[in-house]
Amino acid sequence: MNPTIELLKSHRSVRKFTDQPVSRELLEELVSAGQAAATSSHVQAYSVIHVKNPANREAIAELAGGQGYVATCGAFLVFCADMKRPTEAAERTGARVVRGMTEQLLVASVDTALMAQNVAIAAESEGLGICYIGGIRNNPQQISDLLGLPDHVYPVFGMCLGYPAHDPDVKPRLPVEAILKEDTYSDDSELVAAYDDAMHAYYQSRKGGPKDTTWSQNLTPLFDTKLRPHMREFLVKRGFEMK
Q1: Which pLDDT value is given to residue 135?
Q2: Is residue 243 part of a domain?
């Protein structure tokens, strides 16, 4: 493997950090690397909030589901899908702007995810650990109020950044054969069954302590209890009407 592929394949979520701060200079370099990601029609439909205020960090940690590392990591970023900047820029040229389209929500969300992943890779190349915080969407209105987010901007996820204080294992991924299909979609249930066995073995032997579960079993909350039904109403109120 070349060094870039090796780095990508070594990713793991880090949730324990040393007290070493992440410098502003490095943070700006990471965000600049994030901006180099592909962006739909060069819209760059994202903004990043660097949350420095300790009280706000503590509040977000609780709002995101009691994830204490939000408050203790070296730097905490909230990645926001931002259609305010590009629509207002277009309007200033005299263009007729239609807001609230579903495609705009998709473009902004995808742009934000691509940009954030570049930040993550750049951070890991500098020896930092990262952890995405999807729990931001547990209480998106409170988070938006705390960060002063205007209409047409919504918080997609957070990211903890810092120097790792532990060395977690790399989680096995689904086999490439289950993901990479030729010409048409094909059934991969047998590959998933084999992957469940591999994940069970991983959970039994991982450094953080054994756990008796599989990949399929871990999916249950995502389709049962962690549904976040409030998100549609929240997005509509933010101006993402999904017309």
Answers
A1: 98
A2: no
40 with 111, same domain: the answer is yes
Determine the pLDDT at residue 207. 85
* Same domain, yes or no: 34 and 126: yes
The answer to whether residue 49 is domain-embedded is: yes
Residue at a domain's end among 122, 137, 168 = 168
Q: Is residue 113 part of a domain?
A: yes
Structure confidence at residue 40 (pLDDT) = 98
Q: Give the residues of the chain that fall short of pLDDT 70.
A: none
Same structural domain, 57 and 95:
yes
Range of the domain at 184: 171-237
pLDDT of residue 1: 79
Nearest partner of 23 among 47, 46, 52, judged by Cα: 52
pTM of the complete model beyond 0.90: yes
For residue 64, the model assigns a pLDDT of 98
The predicted pLDDT at position 157 comes to 98
Q: Which residues of 143-169 are buried (b: 16+ CB within 10 A; e: fewer)?
A: bbebbebeebbbbbbbbbbbbbeeebe
For residue 160, the domain's CATH number is 3.40.109.10
